UniProtKB/TrEMBL annotation:
Residues in coiled coil: none
Gene Ontology cellular-component terms listed: synaptic vesicle membrane
Family to which the UniProt record says this protein belongs: Belongs to the synaptophysin/synaptobrevin family.
PANTHER family associated with the record: SYNAPTOPHYSIN, SYNAPTOPHYSIN-LIKE PROTEIN 2
Protein's name in the database: SYPL2 protein
Keyword field: Glycoprotein, Membrane, Transmembrane, Transmembrane helix
Membrane topology of this protein: Multi-pass membrane protein
Subcellular location field: Membrane
Length: 133
């Protein structure tokens, strides 16, 4: 929800009042999907562990239970792949929206020929990249 993040932009005139601008974009859905699927996967793994350890005889006698477990596991694997791809796309969109060069383009004060604006360094997104991998 980048649209909720304000940042101050100097006016560079006599009044020197800072204008407040907001970032553009809402990339929360892919991240929420990724985290929700992770929580559900954890809960299912805990339930399956209880089933395997506590009710082993029920699991070995019933032929439909292992097949159902396999189908649920395949579904979780597919949705995990989809969630990782969605979060990767969401992260790339967040990087594009917060790129210093893109932010300078949104500032009217940097469009004037008299003002010299430089983007500086690109922020480190190493931990965010690791979350996708």
């Amino acid at each position: 929800r980048l649209y909720q993040i304000p940042f101050g932009v100097p006016d560079c005139t006599e009044e020197s009042e800072a204008h407040t601008l907001y970032l553009v974009g809402d990339f929360s859905a892919p991240a929420e999907f990724f985290v929700t699927l992770g929580v559900f996967s954890f809960l299912y793994a805990m339930a399956a562990l209880v089933l395997y350890l506590r009710f082993h005889s029920l699991y070995s006698e019933n032929t439909k239970l292992p097949f159902g477990d396999f189908c649920v596991t395949v579904c979780f694997a597919f949705f995990w792949l989809v969630a990782a791809a969605a979060w990767g796309k969401g992260l790339s969109d967040v990087k594009a929206a917060t790129r210093p060069g893109a932010l300078l383009g949104a500032m009217a004060v940097c469009q004037a020929e008299d003002n010299l604006c430089s983007p500086g360094t690109t922020p480190s997104m190493g931990l965010a990249n690791i979350s996708v991998v």
